[in-house]
Design brief:
With 420 residues, the protein is α/β, with parallel strands linked by helices. The chain folds into two domains: 226 residues, Alpha/Beta hydrolase fold, catalytic domain (Rossmann fold, 3-Layer(aba) Sandwich); 143 residues, no CATH class. Helices cover 26% and strands 20% of the residues. The protein contains eleven helices and 14 strands. The strands form three sheets. Strands 1-2-4-3-5-6-13-14-8-9 form a ten-stranded mixed sheet, sandwiched between helices. The protein has a two-stranded antiparallel ribbon with strand order 7-10. A two-stranded antiparallel ribbon has the order 11-12. Strand 5, helix 4 and strand 6 form a beta-alpha-beta unit. The longest helix is centred in the middle third of the chain and has 30 residues. The two termini are 21 Å apart.
């Protein structure tokens, strides 16, 4: 392990970043890892220290327009492009690998798809809103998606409460679709939702989702014709749709959903050993109170354009998910969905999931859609979404070991394997 030097940098367009470097020259520092998220502050994310200690150059940077329109985060100067350009300008750097964690996978998979294929890759009629720029982008040499979710648009879908009966209120709730009523199967010590309830809930979630898209498209048409409520955009407040762990609906309450992979993959154990097996989630039931009636905790504050470009995805009439798969999402209708984006990425790809995280099943979906011939997938036993051991789930102290070390040791082996 090397001592680490940290340098605050200001990228083109005033994008802030922290450069992590080993204090002494290493053979690995020619490989630079770029860490960014679409919404959050990632300047001190664990990847910086962890990989710099192992000899790599790491840039953790922030986007400037948080909660903004995705394509502006990708291609303008206050963006991923600025961070890639900065790393290309370092004399010690020869290769760049993108690292997308959680919602960062949306941003970086979209960037790489455009960089490899040109902006026309997202301009087809299948897109709700075609990619609005003709600017080309410099591609990275690889991409790592570490406990990525399905994408910002899909997570918005999973957070949508279909029990809402009035788009202007979070208090008018259809009791037949209320997740938190005992008569529908909710209990704090373990839910018992029936298959019929789950099917009705998911069908209603899809219907509300597509209605919101149609509404937003109608408002966009008025805006474009000069008949909107504002000249450039309009607010769009969605009751019962706040994103984030405590607003994920149904599967967060029912751990039997999204519970295990379909295929067998490598599982990294506490001692660093690996087995190949069906991967099971360790996730427990969460969220015993609905936040839908709350304006500050349950509603989503967007604009019409932000929703359509960054948080909307079409669903089909049979949308749903069970213990091991998700179906009925048109991944190609939005460039805010990682599985659809990765269909266009041919650079070497590493996908890793955390078995104690709440989005771990997305890793298999992303991996199955990834176009790269050189792609790998693995899971870390007992790791949370932030890569730390899930102490509250351990049956004995230290059961899961140092999950963060196990993760970054695997990443180190993948980066240094000769592919770059």
């Amino acid at each position: 392990m090397y001592d680490v030097k940290k340098t605050f940098v200001r990228l083109t367009g005033r994008t802030p970043g922290v450069l992590y470097e080993p204090k002494e020259a290493t053979a690995k520092q020619r490989i630079a890892v770029l860490v960014m998220h679409s919404d959050e502050d990632y300047l001190d994310f664990s990847t910086g220290d962890a990989l710099a200690k192992r000899g790599y150059t790491v840039l953790c940077a922030n986007v400037m327009n948080k909660e903004g329109i995705l394509f502006t985060q990708i291609q303008k100067t206050k963006s991923v492009r600025a961070a890639v350009a900065y790393l290309r300008g370092l004399k010690t750097v020869e290769k760049i690998v993108l690292m997308g964690h959680s919602g960062g996978a949306t941003l970086l998979s979209a960037y790489q798809a455009v960089a490899e294929n040109g902006p026309e890759v997202f301009k087809g009629p299948e897109k709700i809103i075609p990619y609005p720029s003709d600017e080309t982008l410099p591609p990275a040499d690889g991409i790592m998606l570490l406990d990525a979710n399905w994408g910002n648009a899909a997570m918005q879908l999973f957070s949508l409460d279909p029990a809402v009966e009035d788009e202007n209120s979070g208090k008018m709730i259809n009791p037949e679709l209320d997740l938190f009523l005992p008569e529908n199967g909710f209990h704090k010590d373990g839910v018992t939702y029936t298959k019929d309830f789950i099917n009705r809930y998911q069908r209603a979630q899809s219907e509300r989702n597509n209605c919101l898209i149609e509404y937003a498209l109608s408002r966009l048409l008025l805006l474009e014709n000069g008949n909107g409520n504002y000249a450039d955009d309009e607010p769009m407040i969605i009751p019962g749709a706040a994103q984030g762990f405590f607003n994920n609906k149904l599967y967060a309450q029912d751990p039997d959903l999204m519970a295990h992979t379909q295929g067998a993959y490598r599982l990294i154990h506490a001692d660093g050993s690996q087995t190949t097996e069906i991967i099971h989630s360790l996730r427990r039931q969460e969220n015993d109170v609905s936040l839908t009636e709350s304006f500050w905790e349950g509603a989503r504050f967007l604009s019409v354009k932000t929703f359509l470009t960054s948080y909307a995805v079409r669903t089909e009439s049979d949308f749903g998910y069970d213990a091991s798969r998700v179906w009925g999402i048109d991944w190609d209708s939005s460039y805010s969905c990682v599985p659809g984006n990765m269909r266009h990425v041919s650079a070497p790809t590493l996908v890793m999931g955390m078995t104690a995280g709440w989005e771990f099943l997305a890793s298999e979906t992303i991996f199955s859609h990834a176009a790269a011939k050189d792609k790998e997938i693995a899971f870390v036993e007992g790791a949370t979404h932030l890569f730390r051991p899930a102490k509250h789930m351990e049956k004995q102290e230290g059961q899961f070991g140092d999950t963060e070390k196990n993760l970054y040791d695997f990443v180190d082996a993948w980066l240094s394997s000769g592919r770059f």
